[in-house]
Amino acid sequence: MEWTGARYADTPTVEVRAWVDAPPDRVWEIVSDFSLMPGMSDELQSVHWLDGAAGPAVGARFVGRSRHEALGEWETTSHVVECECPRVLTWAVEDPSRPAAVWRFRLEDKDGGTDLSEWMQLGPGRSGLSFAIDGMPDKEQKIVFVRMREFERNMTATLGHIKKLAEER
């Protein structure tokens, strides 16, 4: 992959794709139901909406609680910055003007089903990974590389879960 040599300040990205044998509307029902996401992730433990929101809409906020063996447990507040049913859903982690990460699901009607992608960008704002890098600055590139591979693996698993759920309905 293209992460070799990447530094946090490079805002590295990763994207995974899957074709789902279901229409975008059905896939959207799953992608936009954040209560399902903890069951699809080893890292994400829970999600709850803030300010009375019941689901994604531009400006809606939610808290995600996560756990990682090497990084510990943490909680972040994310902001939905793009929501176009049933095409794209994007959220920024922490400060939307300088996020710790940006996540996006994109859905495209293709070949009688849905081309589904999940994309994420690390940084430019500080995150838990920043603290690991602060402690071992000489290992920054390795830390970023390993974390991006973890994201890729977890995102691939998430898309597999979404595909299974959408095709079973």
UniProtKB/TrEMBL annotation:
UniProt-listed Gene3D superfamilies: 3.30.530.20
Listed InterPro entries: Polyketide_cyclase/dehydratase, START-like_dom_sf
SUPFAM superfamilies listed in its UniProt record: Bet v1-like
Entry-linked Pfam families: Polyketide_cyc2
Protein name as catalogued: SRPBCC family protein
